[in-house]
Amino acid sequence: MLRPLSQTAVFRPGAAAQPTNVAFYGILSDVDAKCDRAGGAVRASLDVVIIGERGPAATAMGANSVDLQYFVAVTGPDQTILSKRTLPVHIDIPPDARRAGITDHIEELIPAGSAPANQLNIMLGFQQGPEVVDFYRHFRGR
Prior knowledge:
Blueprint: E1 7-11, E2 22-38, E3 41-54, H1 58-61, E4 65-75, E5 81-92, E6 99-111, E7 121-126, H2 130-138
Antiparallel strand pairs: 1-2, 2-3, 3-6, 4-5, 4-7
C-alpha cells in the first residue's frame, strides 16, 4: 500500500475541504497478496480490506453508505507503470455503527515479459482528487 494514499476523505457536497465537512473517511486497512509466475506473466490474487468510517458531516447528510475508488498498479524495475486499474467499492455502514468494512477480492494477470517477477511491484492506493490531496497536506486526517 502506498502510505500517503492509504486514506481518503469524502466531503459533504458543496462544502470546503475541512475536517468538519468530512462525511466519510476511507481507509485501506490490510492486503493479503499471493503471486505466482505463469509463463510470461505473474498471476496476483489480492484480498484488500477497505474501511468506511463516518466523519463529522455524515449525520447532517443522513447517509449510511459511501462509494470509494482505489487503484491497483503494477510497476516495473524502473518504476514505469505497466498497468493500472481503478476499482469502485460500496460500503454500507449500519445506522448504529461508526464504521464498517469489506474485503475486495481481485485477480490480476500481469504481463511480465522478460522482467524477473521480483522486480515487479504491486501498489494500492485511493484514487484521489486535488481537494483530497490538499486536505491531507493541511490536515493530518482522522
